[in-house]
Amino acid sequence: MSQLAGADGEWVIRFFMPADKTMESLPEPDDDAIKLVTVPAETVAVRRFTGSRGRRAIASQTAELMRALRDNGFEPAGSAVAWFYDPPWTVPMLRRNEIVIPVMPNS
After folding, report:
1. Which of 2, 49, 101, 105 qualifies as a cystine partner to 43, CB 3.0-4.6 A?
2. How far apart (Å, rounded) are the C-alpha atoms in residues 76 and 36?
């Protein structure tokens, strides 16, 4: 799952389905606000972390991932996003969170 602030101040929440699912095999949403879309393939760098999902934690983890990309010769190809996998009541040390940054594939 990833969350993005939309232009109108509303949150956009994305859920990713397993690769073996097709648009035809997914159930039809019963809410008009839910849209099923195909997302093009991309190469991403990911940093997994536990604990806080606050702005400071996300900024710190993003900086660490950006540093690792620079140190290893990768070029970001887009903005960082945060992906969260657990409900808010999960004990912080057990949470699975990720920072994801699209990168240019190595040739």
Report:
1. 105
2. 27
Residue 6: exposure state from Cβ atoms within 10 A (0-12, 13-18, ≥19): exposed
Q: Pairing mode, if any, of strands 81-84 and 11-14?
A: unpaired
Range of the domain at 16: 2-102
pLDDT in tens, 77-101: 999 999 998 988 999 999 999 999 9
Q: For residues 54 and 51, what is the distance between their CA atoms, to the nearest angstrom?
A: 9
Per the CB < 8 A criterion, the answer to whether 97 and 83 are in contact is: yes
| Number of domains the chain is built from | 1
